[in-house]
Amino acid sequence: MGNTIGTIYRFTIWGQSHAPEIGVTIEGLPAGTLIDRSKLQAFMDRRRPGGNRYSTARREGDEVFFAAGLNEASETVGAPLTAVIRNTNTRSSDYEELKYVPRPGHADYPAMVRFGGARDFAGGGQFSGRMTAPLCIAGGIALQLLEARGIRISARAVMIGGETEEERMLAAIDEARAEGDSVGGVVECVVENVPAGVGEPMFDGIENRIAQMVFGIPAVKGIEFGNGFACASLRGSENNDPYIFSEGRVQTRTNHAGGIYGGMTSGMPIVFRAAFKPTPSIAKEQDSIDMRTGEAVRLCVHGRHDPCIVPRAVPVVEAAAAAAVLDEMMMSEIHV
Amino acid sequence: MGNTIGTIYRFTIWGQSHAPEIGVTIEGLPAGTLIDRSKLQAFMDRRRPGGNRYSTARREGDEVFFAAGLNEASETVGAPLTAVIRNTNTRSSDYEELKYVPRPGHADYPAMVRFGGARDFAGGGQFSGRMTAPLCIAGGIALQLLEARGIRISARAVMIGGETEEERMLAAIDEARAEGDSVGGVVECVVENVPAGVGEPMFDGIENRIAQMVFGIPAVKGIEFGNGFACASLRGSENNDPYIFSEGRVQTRTNHAGGIYGGMTSGMPIVFRAAFKPTPSIAKEQDSIDMRTGEAVRLCVHGRHDPCIVPRAVPVVEAAAAAAVLDEMMMSEIHV
Amino acid sequence: MGNTIGTIYRFTIWGQSHAPEIGVTIEGLPAGTLIDRSKLQAFMDRRRPGGNRYSTARREGDEVFFAAGLNEASETVGAPLTAVIRNTNTRSSDYEELKYVPRPGHADYPAMVRFGGARDFAGGGQFSGRMTAPLCIAGGIALQLLEARGIRISARAVMIGGETEEERMLAAIDEARAEGDSVGGVVECVVENVPAGVGEPMFDGIENRIAQMVFGIPAVKGIEFGNGFACASLRGSENNDPYIFSEGRVQTRTNHAGGIYGGMTSGMPIVFRAAFKPTPSIAKEQDSIDMRTGEAVRLCVHGRHDPCIVPRAVPVVEAAAAAAVLDEMMMSEIHV
Amino acid sequence: MGNTIGTIYRFTIWGQSHAPEIGVTIEGLPAGTLIDRSKLQAFMDRRRPGGNRYSTARREGDEVFFAAGLNEASETVGAPLTAVIRNTNTRSSDYEELKYVPRPGHADYPAMVRFGGARDFAGGGQFSGRMTAPLCIAGGIALQLLEARGIRISARAVMIGGETEEERMLAAIDEARAEGDSVGGVVECVVENVPAGVGEPMFDGIENRIAQMVFGIPAVKGIEFGNGFACASLRGSENNDPYIFSEGRVQTRTNHAGGIYGGMTSGMPIVFRAAFKPTPSIAKEQDSIDMRTGEAVRLCVHGRHDPCIVPRAVPVVEAAAAAAVLDEMMMSEIHV
């Protein structure tokens, strides 16, 4: 369980940070869909490690290889699409000392309990942020299908280290790094032009499915749609969005609901925000335990880490939103 | 799609606000599980309409009838369990005028687009808060199974109408009602004693699954775990939870993660908060459109409504958490 | 697990032979679908116990009650459809003596091992042929949707007790009954007018899905498509179906494949046969064991039983085929 | 849809006959499971093309590469296991002429209709028998897990070209090949030592799941369990299996049911037979149509083909049975 998501546009992500390969297998792509491979690669590059000064020093080309499902004209053939990235720049030796000492804030301890000694702990194994690369393949392809339907998705950082103004956000990252520390932030994502009436009732609504997808991105600790948590301080008369007829179609004057009622789209932009915790890998010494002895130890996490993952998380959030929205659209289209 | 959730502890909720019956069919219950029916009914009563001064005037006994799956000793027989509530106090005439005029903040407009003229709009149809009653059956039974494993779940309102102190929260509801308005709030839920290592990777982790379930409760617009959105202003050194050995077991000194790393439990309490929007049904006049003509109309929502659903939502959040956590525990147990 | 089937046209069957109710909840029905209730009831009557001289003496009206999902005009509202049959004519006392003595040929012994003492053994519990009634509801509704697409399904008995001629088949049943015994048979089903290209690859093809559905009918022990087992004695040059262009469309000169290649339809009729074992409940004394002591006992099965279930199984096979084919058609339509 | 199967032991098969790679991703393997890689390779070799005189002339090493999910000690790490085979010996030119002329007995025509011009028709694309190689990986690993539980699976050809004696079966193949023709057959499979009570009710019983899996093997046109179609000529008193207490446990004197009642195991061996049609690729001229013009053409299928796939299908049937039975056992174990 866990690595597969989606009902029609359904995919399975596989791999670990330091496995020979990571990849994704996608079912549900209509046959004859043209994949713009250079556009996809450009999308991947926005997430790629080593791509900017705020990212890990690990260098990976993240070149996508299509193992199956695509013909020579880059069209889908109607079979599952398997896309693979080879891991090249792995330094597992960085992690040997962590086998018995869980890093605070990481999945190490629960993974020890759950998977025991055979688990792959190098680079965080299957819980590594590296696993967002195959998510970006599935989402990047979904983006292309959505674009063909006139749908646009764009995300951006709206807060980092408590700052909301762009230069100050970047400064917050630099400061944290200088101190061997890290910072968290919030990414906001907007999905435009989804028609009204998309989304399944109850547990498979737009909010349910985007949330399930977005919590699959490591470090996400919260999600809200439209007014979100601010709702708790509002009156119904303030929060409701009155209907108007404008530009030849039904709209709402405001969009406090983030484009969603009852799990279904209203035709207004879908708006959500995801909260990212500060990168748990920090250079500062931390308290942990040697699991063999139960003794307290002081831990220094070495290796190559982002002082803030938010900048690289921006395309990942877009990818997650795209994959969820495409699947919802495909589901909605069946019932007509 | 939409009405079924869960992998092992899997259930389908069916019904509409004014259908003859609403109910739930649960698969995955081990045979021979004793259901404490009076305890379940007491749990249902916490959510029941008409149960307190902050709820709708609709009166429903919400008595649970077991149509199948339970023997005379109230033990599960190994077949699906179907539990039914008969709708008795329906006043569909309240809704006739709303057939072509969508209520702001409700699912009316997307449902019109999606399901057309055949849809059941009386009382909100399948999007009614009434559908949380069968969720409470599924969750209330899950609570009993979890309790037998020593797990405790309790939720409470931590904010209503911007207030965080109990008397002031209640006052905020009274004021809103007096003004024909409504208020939103935040419910916090704590799940204690879940062992470490429960939760599937990536898309089926504790956060993903609780989020997918909780967004199935009408009016929820946000969810956060542990520090949640506050992470965006924190450093890694502040947010990480150092490991300590205490009371004979591995713990963390703080629990900023809300008991979850990499989607898996740490053994510390699971802590999450859900944001509820103000009840969209308000007595105040609002702007809407007559969908037959496209003309603007002023709408007054009559009928019987809660000025704040947060008090009645508290057991529903517990139910949602219970159903999700039980399913995760069952999944984790297979792989051993 | 077990009681839910289907991807788009998905349903869950619940109940036991002597539970208060049995029923089915169907998801995936397009909103606004008109259900012809009297036609459905007429279909149910073909399977109803007591309906003909070859069936059990148990009398049941099998009247279908729609608990949710249908409006007053008998149109689907876009929510799950729940249809219920009340069990009225139950005589559980017939079964008390069987609690510890498994009947040969029945699910009693495996159910004992699996579900233990809490199981519902009256009338075979969830393994009763009575559970085909809700399957006929799901299938009967599917038949109506298929008919609206011009698709026709009809099944008939082609062998009973080794006989293939109609009068002799009926005579074989009468003889078996006279001797306190029972007979098995084969039902053939033909599905006409399904367009070419319907069916998913590999594990969700037409054959896979019909087989999974049909083995859900108690007593089915085999299924074959087209030439089926006869293939084992044929050459490729005999078994292949040559393509011809006829009546303005692509056809095959023969239909040895039963209308299916690679799990997908060819546009020719889908043809399959299901083998039913003789009713295991017979009046003759049989050897069994008292599970409390391990001692051999001679068992006489009392109660009311069909000497041959094949006649009543005919509409059940149609129902199973309809539900599977409709789901496949809905899946195929998404990917266009 | 289509390429994924299983509930706990769940896998997705991907690739096409002439894609760069084919492979399988398996979820649900318990962490720390040791995979005997040379044993797996030996199992693969039983299916490998070019492995015996009855197989295609295509030569493939079919070496399994583990892209993820296995550590250096060949233990599963608790993440999905992805195993890959590189296609090396592809001769797509053999197929160019078939783009518009469907081969009788193959999936060509339905695939044309369904997937259009972008489909991969080389070597049968995703409908090729080559796709049973990844099925053998998933099944071969399942076999190892079952063996560790004391379960043994073995299949054998019991009929080829109408012959049931071994030498005559081989002769029938030789004769067919000499004439540019092909023959079909029947494979019987026995699964020993599965405990009683395994299997889910109704649609997820042992028969349902084995059938769904086995029809995933190209060329299978029928399946029967125990007495199967022979039931149609038997009386209940002949077909029922009386219970006896023997060797310290409950058994049945006969095993006409093939070890299954109500979809659940009885503790006796599971016995089933699968019917394989003759290889549709034959050297003899056949009638087909040029889809561009609708004109009749005489078609000669070139390329490299097995005159009878039954010998190579034997391990594939074992693999299918193993994967289905392991999944059922894992499901049964949860509910305890």
Q: What is the top-level CATH class of chain A? A: Alpha Beta
Report the sheet-strand fraction of chain A.
15-25%
For the record, the CATH architecture of chain A stands as: 4-Layer Sandwich
Helix content of chain A: 25-40%
**CATH fold group of chain A:** Chorismate synthase, AroC fold
Give the terminus-to-terminus CA distance of chain A. Answer: 31 Å
What does this structure look like?
- 4 copies of one chain form a homotetramer.
- Chain A is an alpha+beta fold and 336 residues long.
- Chain A has a single domain (4-335), classed as Chorismate synthase, AroC fold (4-Layer Sandwich).
- Chain A has 7 helices and 15 strands.
- In chain A, the strands form 5 sheets. In chain A, strands 1-2-3-5-4 form a 5-stranded antiparallel sheet, with helices on one face.
- In chain A, strand 14 and strand 15 (295-299) form a beta hairpin.
- In chain A, helix 1 (37-47) crosses helix 3, helix 1 packs across helix 7 and helix 5 runs antiparallel to helix 7.
- Chain A starts with a strand and ends with a helix.
- The mean pLDDT of chain A is 93.
- Chains in contact: A-B, A-C, A-D, B-C, B-D, C-D.
- The B-D interface holds B 7-8, 28, 30-31, 78-79, 201, 330, 333-336 and D 7-8, 28, 30-31, 78-79, 201, 330, 333-336.
Characteristic key phrases:
homotetramer; 336 residues; alpha+beta; Chorismate synthase, AroC fold; five-stranded antiparallel β-sheet; four-stranded antiparallel β-sheet; 7 helices; 15 strands; globular
Question: What's the gist of this structure?
Answer:
Chain A is α+β, with helices and mostly antiparallel strands and 336 residues long. The first copy, chain A, contains seven helices and 15 strands.
